[in-house]
Amino acid sequence: MSLLRPDILVIGLDPAGLECALGAALARLPVVVVTQNQHRKAGPGGLDILNRIRALGGKVVEAEVRFRDRHHVFVGGDTIAARRIVLALAAPPVTPALAGLEQAPRWAPGQAATSVLVFGSGAHTPAMAQAARAEGHRTLLVTPEGLLPGFDAEAVEALGANLRRAGIEIHEGIGVEGARVERCPEGFLLYPARTSVAQDAPIGFSHWCSPLEGLPPLDGLALEEASIALRDGRPVTGAGLATTNPRVLALGATRSPLADPATARAEAGLALAFMLARKNPERALAQLPRIVHGPLTLIEAGETEAGLAQRTPSGMRYYRQPLAGGGMLKVITDKQGRPLRIVALAQHAPGLMAPLLQRLADGRPLSDLASLPLPALQEADAVAALGRMALAEELSTPGARLLLRLLRLLG
User: With the C-alpha atoms ordered 165, 167, 171, 172, is the resulting torsion angle positive or negative?
Assistant: First the structure.
């Protein structure tokens, strides 16, 4: 049995963990990735990253893992004492707890189907429904709660209208308790059981799919030996990335059930900054955008609805700019004009968000964007319009009006 001493040990194949390992390898740091015998589940993109890590001098090991104590990990026949350890195990997909659903076939992109029932309320559900619809299948999006709980209500309503225009049927508020699936001559029927409205007609479908994920496979890691506490099946991480063992970080689906592969690179960058430069990731983590992909992409960043609810309404300013195709751009600022929350629903949402996210990160006022130069005219107009709204409000204060009068007198 040998003792390895890399700078960073990454356990698992979650996209955030792989990006973290790749970043460390690019920085020429000694890094070891342990796939926990899930190598074949990495997918083409994950396998490419693993190959790049190897090419950069990193080590990839397919073996079982178990903590010996707070500082050492058993990996196969070796012991690893890394300066930092990253837990990044991908969560497996799960079947919704709908009685009888196991009778129906699960749909995958490219598979023939008459009608596809997409079940879930997360950020990946609309994209999955749009993928089924794009292949010409009748698509039914069924949510146990609202369409996107926790997202901006106005933006979600606009996104729902866009999905309906695309031919996707949306059934909201259908919980799993009391609902059942039965076979019929045409395929299968979902009999809803709703608590707030009367019993609805059954929903017919031939296949189903769902983005729902279970808990990361942490059993067998002996986390208790490393003094890593769990809550609801995931490591306790407080406001940052570190677990109750400061040497061990949790990323991606291991850290949060709301993990988004689209922000994996950003989360990995925060983890590397924390591990190498002790830079606290708490504020940056809170500002990571939440993304719903589609023809109209929905992106939110900044404080959540719950966080804004704790603020005094008189201390906030609201700015909204409609966009073509039913989209919108909305920014909520404090009294000084500094963005607190940004919402974009647009075909080119990432381009719209870039300058706004910079103001959010820097704490600079929205009015700075009044004359923002951007190459795409529509994006420049939309963002600059918000900046002009904020600038006009700043100039409407008594102090600003007095200053303007003084400037006129002075010529």
Answer: negative
